[in-house]
Design the sequence.
């Protein structure tokens, strides 16, 4: 069995730190690091809806809210520095759509009312697993933002708005061997790369398994899913510790 | 058990037609229809590489080729007509990246040499399952293009270039019930939407399962994968019939 | 007198095929081929007006409709494949404006009421004469769309909306000799290139005669116009046959 | 017979002024006014070729030059002010392509050698006929630029480079009556609008006749062409007077 | 002490010409030249407000107007010709913001009422000092536009709208020596470049002093400000002469 | 004398924190806060030059390096959240040009050799003074980056590359009274806003004084400059403490 670059076991996550209430103007924010990957996640709430949604809900009785997400790599998140782009490239677009869907799976948009939650995930240091760490962090920022909103705003968002917690982890196959939470060096060599998003109660939200110039068997699929479930369970525990008294799930 | 809008059984694909050598200037092309969905897939081969690849391969001995894909909705593919988007939006970007990865998983880019295969998938009529039909058709266009290239060009692409066949199908859960090959009416109501890409020899290339504002259990996942394997097997058979003597897999 | 690449006589059009009701989601569509040129024309009708028109008609009693057109080359319409662009280039912009004007010349926009007809002309194979074939096909798609609309919609568009038929053909001067319906090989060598749009009743809609790095005399102009009239008359006949019972002109 | 807004006869051009060597950094420039229309035309010469041309001429022995044109409306050219468009819209694109073709028809690009002439036509006041006045002025700027270049540059452009002079005029049909050099008020009401570009020796360069929501007969076409020839002849005379000793045609 | 390229003294402005009512469709316009720099300034007035302002003033009693400015280099203003860009680059953006602020400092936007003054500054020939000449000219165009508006429009803009006159000049340090009104040759070699905008009554509107790859001392700053005041005073005198009876300040 | 919103004296800076080596992939980075304003500054060094510079230096013997800067507001830096702008707007463009010029004034680009320093300033929380805090922080990141580069790279950047330190502060006039380091509430009400950039040895790098819809007298200018010098001196001291042993100026 090959050694991992950072000497972890196959089922070990990288060391994770979560710093809640990182200074921004958003009501919810967290700075997460997992090994060499660092992501700043914020959650903002605004009293408006995207135009397409206003049009869509015009003829309905109840007005549902919306949750959207943006994901960007800071230019200094890579070495050498990467150039800023005029708009999100294909990869960033795909990732921010994934983050948005993952969060929407655990909230009740009708209870949110006519407001929009905007999640921003900015990668400050990229060493693999930025999209899954973004989802894990976005949930923390979301909870903090809703609690803060309820303390400061005349309209209170009913707390069943948050139906479950959500977290994500990457798994993959490298040299024929399944591994969890791949760092960048592992990621570029992996035959199969899979991102798994699950709730705190163990249901699937999203599975994205991809063989880039490779394929995988059914048994490899099952082994990857098994690792993912173990990791998500650990991440849920860390989210709970970080949120402290703000946690109200399971 | 609820009836499907077109009275199919849960495991039935929609009626499929594949018209090979559809008139374009590309060496490979096919017009596919599956129920109310119609896609034109073409495969072109050019004697050049994308700039980023030229830069990347500068210091290597062998020069690998590339395969890329573009996906667009024709404005008249929906009713009412949708605005023409020359630049792919987030959804189209995501889909064309999926098509490209799926095809690259079954070809040997080193054998292609310093040339690029460009797949174009243009949806002429959209009734659900456009991305999976695009993958299934793109493979047919690719095979036709390579055979035609070998007949007309001084340099022959070695046929082991094609390592396996590839096809794709959608599965989903609607009203708690798994179904295959969802049409648009089913798609909008589905709790879970999953696209599965597999090779003709039964290996996974890509799994993308998504609960939009919903989640799914492990047993639901397994039932969807079972349906997908059945469908892919049938699609592989149809690809084989359409390609006739051009088919040389399994 | 020089031989033409495809051995036609100077006044002969290329062989033309018109396949009406080609499968898209538009109420009117036709796939046309003229020799090696293939164009898909669709006509869609929507219950809305472009913003600039709403502003313009705000203070008027009657609300006039609008007809607009888009023209694109499919990437696989040329060999080698041409790249998709983010927006129509100068040539495409010019052509789609010509198609729109040509169709508007034979319709009564006031009778259309507050709705927009959108013509889409997508070139699938380009071998010269794509803009004139687009106009000829767009008229067929338009008639089919209006008839279908009247069958399926509560508001009927009065048929005098269609004032005349319209068709177009290219003529040119090659090696000092006027010719009709130039294929690509002739087009690139032509000293003068002229596109003529005429109605079924023999009136001019548009004349665009261009000497690229060349000029032409008055007698050459007259000879080109004579050829064009012959061709348009033949094209009108073919439109009539394709539309069958839907034809109600002249 | 209806009176024209400015009491001209049907065959009368508007009063024209041409101020050569208008202060810019270009070697050729002229400020033209025709009635209420004012255009600044400049011609610049650079020692380079557009990238597409360099690629195209790579394998040829002789290196041909290029002439290109840009056309813009100054925001203050209309009342009320129009928004500045740095990027040409569809109309401007069409016009600048016309200006470029018209000038290229009377020059010998091979004699120009590996350099580019860039024509800039900026409309300072718009009262109809801006594109034809631009062509007429661009020719003056071009001649001035070439002469100035030959005085100041080590490489002399052989004067047969200029094969003929070129000028342009608009004609149209208003209330059934042909007219020349339409002002804006006439232009908006015209049933047919035709721009004619001719050389000083009376050959056609370009004819663009357009019936916007109207059509025209063959005899109307001939009458418009007759008026155009009269006007072009007068404009050629004015170009000759403006260029003075720089004139060397016919 | 080094000689200046055009043999001026250190405190001498270049020869200035101001041609008021230059032919455009704007109510105010002036063509200014200072040595080899030529700028066309126009002022247009429209009965509308920018969208952001409408939103901002929605809840207020009085409706304030707005003044905005655009600045562009004509492609033929430099030799060799510079390419047109799709939108203003960083330098142009910065300059047009400066022009807008400078003019707004001497007008009373509340007295303007719900209308927008749009200043357009187009550089026709660039030989240093284009931004300061633009400000000096923009003020003349503005006064002419307001007077013309008051003559032709039912609503009169109260003349206290114009609180003071404004003009601008560049100063700099070259080879350790302060100079005024630098031409291009001096500008590229200057260690420090400072633009000073002042009112006719001697108050500062804007100071922008910049050491590009250099720094400057406090005494150098004071000497530059002294030169600037001298120049502004002379420019104010020239504005007064150009505006003649339209001048009503100081 | 009016009280300041945070009860500071007129000459007091807000409380400042500087956290060096903030986790990113850049060799130099610092997180600064001044009262409610938080900025992340990074400095990256790449072994390449911008294309325009390569062209410019082609014919020179020595190859000079370049330093460039980018400035962005994080969407969550304001409340309510502002839209993400991947492409800098006019204000951001102006600011990042200022940051770049300010840093270039204290470095010797020739000693840098053929490499580019890229400064990134991302505002995480905006409460006034973001551009001056960016400059102050960018200098710290720059020093850290150069020292780190020299430890890790075969080519050492000679330390005289850093000619002086640089810092910046805002001053302004509010209700007729000069103040230093304005917070957002003061900034919006200020009659005059001035940003002053100075070196650690007390020389001016840049002065940008602006009266938005207001003007200022010479004595007010001098009082603002006096306050700025006091503030810069304090900021230089803080930079020195933060850099510790890395500091080698004055």
Sequence:
């Amino acid at each position: 069995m090959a050694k991992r670059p950072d000497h972890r076991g196959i089922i070990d996550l990288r060391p994770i730190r979560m710093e809640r209430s990182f200074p921004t103007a958003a009501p919810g924010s967290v700075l997460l690091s997992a090994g060499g990957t660092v992501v700043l996640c914020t959650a903002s709430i605004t009293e408006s809806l995207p135009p397409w949604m206003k049009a869509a809900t015009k003829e309905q009785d109840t007005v549902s809210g919306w949750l959207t997400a943006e994901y960007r790599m800071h230019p200094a998140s890579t070495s050498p520095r990467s150039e800023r782009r005029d708009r999100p490239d294909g990869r960033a677009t795909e990732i921010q759509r994934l983050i948005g869907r993952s969060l929407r799976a655990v909230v009740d948009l009708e209870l949110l009312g006519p407001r929009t939650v905007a999640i921003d995930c900015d990668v400050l240091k990229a060493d693999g697993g930025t999209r899954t760490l973004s989802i894990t962090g976005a949930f923390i920022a979301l909870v903090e933002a809703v609690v803060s909103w309820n303390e400061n705003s005349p309209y209170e968002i009913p707390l069943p708005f948050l139906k479950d917690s959500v977290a994500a982890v990457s798994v993959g196959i490298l040299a024929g061997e399944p591994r969890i939470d791949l760092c960048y060096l592992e990621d570029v060599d992996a035959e199969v790369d899979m991102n798994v998003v699950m709730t705190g109660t163990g249901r699937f939200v999203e599975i994205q398994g991809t063989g880039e110039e490779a394929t995988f068997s059914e048994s490899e699929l099952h082994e990857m899913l098994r690792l993912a479930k173990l990791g998500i369970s650990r991440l849920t525990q860390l989210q709970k510790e970080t949120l402290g008294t703000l946690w109200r799930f399971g």
In short: DSSP finds six helices and nine strands in chain F. Residues 108 and 161 of chain F are 5 Å apart (CA to CA).
